[in-house]
Prior knowledge:
Layout: H1 4-15, E1 44-46, E2 49-57, E3 64-72, E4 87-94, E5 97-101, E6 104-108, E7 113-116, E8 122-125, E9 132-140
Antiparallel strand pairs: 1-2, 2-3, 3-9, 4-7, 4-9, 5-6, 5-8
Amino acid sequence: MKKIIPILMVLVWQFAPVLATAADQPSDAKMGSMVIHWDKIELKPVATGARVTVFEAPTATLDKFHCHISTLNPGQNTGAPHRHPQEELVVIKSGSLEVNINGKIETAETGSMIFYAANELENMRNTGTTPATYYVIQFYTPATPKS
């Protein structure tokens, strides 16, 4: 886990940072570099656990760069298997998740990373006894379908 956090922080610090105040930015504003402090992030309750969008904006090289943090309560899932046109990286901060990629089921524990290629059939489920918190980082490029 200690090795994963610096990798994630480099991703976030180098390419991200607009926090939840991104809504205050013009929609075409490019994200600049900054530090996002964990203790400043406030997850909001949702039916399956909690969630907060950390940033969502274009960068110098991406049409859109998105990060949200979710907590999935025991027994909950991310919905029926579904597809996204963008690529997605999930980093598990705590807990464990059952990961379904095109019908192949695998368990991912604290510190694990999950990469979903574009248009893969996927979902996740918390089969553990404690909440699972994870970062979702999505990359939209000119090659990403617009709808």
